[in-house]
Structures are given as structure tokens and as C-alpha cells.
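ugh ok fine here u go
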Amino acid sequence: MQRASEGASDVARPAAAARETWASRLGFVMAAAGSAVGLGNIWRFPWLAGENGGGLFLIAYLLMVGTLGISVLLAEIVIGRAAQKDPVGAFRLLGGGPWRLVGYLGIASAFLILSFYGVVAGWTLAFAVKQASGLFETAAPSQVFADLLAATYEPLAWAFAFLAMTAAVVSGGIRNGIERANLVLMPLLFLLLVLLAVRAVTLPRGLEGLAFFFAPDVTHLTTATIAAALGQAFFSLSIGLGAMITYGSYLQRGQPVGRAAFQIAALDTLAALLAGSIVFPAVYFAGIDPASGPGLAFVTLPSVFAEMPAGRLFGVVFFVLLAIAALTSAISLLEPVVAFLVDEYGFRRRLATLLTTVVAFLVGIPSSLSLGPMPELAAFGMSFLDLVDFVTASLMLPAGGLAMALFVGWKIAPLATAELAGEAQHRQPLIRAWILFLRFAAPAAIGWILVAGLIG
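structure:
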């Protein structure tokens, strides 16, 4: 088995090219945490927990983040720091041969996700404005949401506005764009999360909702619950699409990556816990089923805000929070594609950003139209948006994560070990355990996600 990884032992540690780096380790952690903390934490996590028994799902999720999530996250960061290149360049340099296809898979995944993510994120901007106008005090949120989806141009305008904001940050570069934005946006995001969580738990019946979220219900102990927690942990950390490889490639030598991986996972988990502490007290206050599904954010919660004292204000804060979370994640979806064009083809950053953003917007148009005016844009019983979401989330990301775990565990294990050996907090037994986990346990778990996605 050791022979499978010896090929990388002769790989010289590549010299860093003249490229941008993070100004500080804090900047990297905030940016990487911003990549991880997105709509998946604040929108997807609560309704998955609601459908899978609350506390039991939470325990399973924490276990998955602490094992599978951190292991693959650290693997991606190590690949990036070792190669100092975009995902395609990293796999070509460190692995060669067909391994570079893993990098192309990551770039394609990031681009496709960005195309429909911009559409969904645009809804958060629209709802922030509609909430501020007091619309939900006179109109049913379900009808407002249906009208938004049915429109042709309005959702596209919001998607364009959101992608333009994303491009403005990425075009500024690593230090002056991505790092500076995340050093502002991430503290603001957590401040808003805490503010809303405090307000939610002080609502009548708020503590009952909190109890549902944290108290495990063993009647929901099924393989489906475990699989849902495993999938959420995997996708929540933005692993499998090359974003963490790209962010890791901007790390300077000597900056510890092991500690950073734990900090990123901790911030991502904290955001999910705070989101649950907002949603479940709020729905219990309104007497709504916590298993309301994906409509929690855009249909259920606006109804809750309408019943709360100062509900319009807290509704605006919530949708601004969603928009910030979406923005920090979208930045990390755009950056790998931009880095690929800059590193591999010599594009200027601003041109690469503009080109990628425009094409992503155009590719996202069918996703938006398929939910309303053009339902015929569908295949396999799914709308165009749902189809792209399924292909990326259920197939491409697990395949990418699986390949990355195998790559570090088998192909470049000696190099990966050397990358961590100099960090004081690491010990050889822990590093060996990490390598073994990437070789066997992580592929088995990710393979389960992949199979579940195919048969689901």
C-alpha cells in the first residue's frame, strides 16, 4: 500500500511563483470561513435539522464535521499551499497525468454552482428590500415568493446585482478585495447571527424551539438521518470544488494550516448552531411545524416576522444576513475560476473576473426561468435549476472530494506529511491517523454520499 504513495516522495516542494498572498493568517481564516458559511448554514441546515429530529441530526452533523469534514478540508488546504497554484495547476504539478482532471472537475463545479447560486442569492436581496418596504405585513409571503419566481426579469435583475457585487470584491485581488471584504463581512455576519438568536430565544415558546434543536430524538435514528448529516457536513465546508485549494495556494510558507482548518470548521459550525437557534425558537413562537422544509426562509419566516414586535426590522436583518452569507460563499466560487484563468492562461484578474461573471450570469438565466415563465426548461423530472443543483451537489462535489482524499492519502502522502511535520501542534501519530483516514474512512463515507445521490 505504501508504494501507491511513494511516487510523490520525489516531488520537490515547488517554489512559490510571484503571486498574491494573504496579508495575515486571520485574513485567510476569515475568507475560508466565509467560503464555508453560506446559505447552506443559515437556510439549508435548519430545515434539514427540522426534518431529521433536531438534536439527533445536530449530534450526527457535529461528528461528521469533526472527522470527515476537517480531514478533507485540511487535505485541500495542504494541496493548495504545497503547489501555490490554482486547482488545475496544483494537480498537474503534484500529481501529473490524469490527476489534473480533478482540478478541471473542481473548476467546472465552482462555475456551475455560481451560475445558479447567484439566482438564489438574488432572492435574498429581493426579500431584504421587500421586507424593508413592509410588503409582508399586507401580502402573504408565499404569494410574494411565487410572484418573484414567476417573473421573467425581476429575479434576473437581482441575480445580476448580486453577481456584480461578487465580481467587485474578487476583481480587487486577494488582499484588497477578498481578504478586506471578509474581514468586514464575517464579523458583521456573526454579530447579526447573535443579535437574531438572542431575540429569537426571548420570544414566547422560544426555549421550546431551542430544546427541540438541542435535545436528541432517538426515534429519528435512521440511516437517512446519518446520510443527511454526512452530506450537510461535506457540502457546508465548501470541500470538493477547489475553493479551499485556491485559498490555500495564497498562504505563505510557515503559516500553520492544521490550526486554521480547525478554526474554519469551528466558525462554520458556530454559524449553523446560531442559525438553528434563530429558526427553531421563531417557528415555535408562531406555532409552525419545524419540518417545514426549504420554504422556511422565504415563506415561513417572513410570516413569523410579521407577528413579532419590531418584526420588520428583524426581518430585514435576517435577509441581509442571508445575503452576506451568500456573498462570502459566492466569492469563493468565483475565485477558483478566476485563478485558473490567471494562472493557466495569463489573463489579467479584472478581465478574468468580468468574463467569468458575465458567462455565469448567462448560464444562470435558464435556472431562473425554469422556476417560473419557462417550466419546460426541465429534464429527468427536475427544473433546470434543480438539475444543475443535483448534478453538482450530488455527483460532482462528492466525486471531487473523493478524488482529493485519495490523492492526498495515496499519491502525495509523504509530501502532505512533510507539509504538516513542521507545525508544533501536530504529532506524527496524528498525521499518520489523518493519512489513514483519507485512505480508507473518508472515501467510504464520500462514496456513500455519491451512491445516495445517485439512487435518491
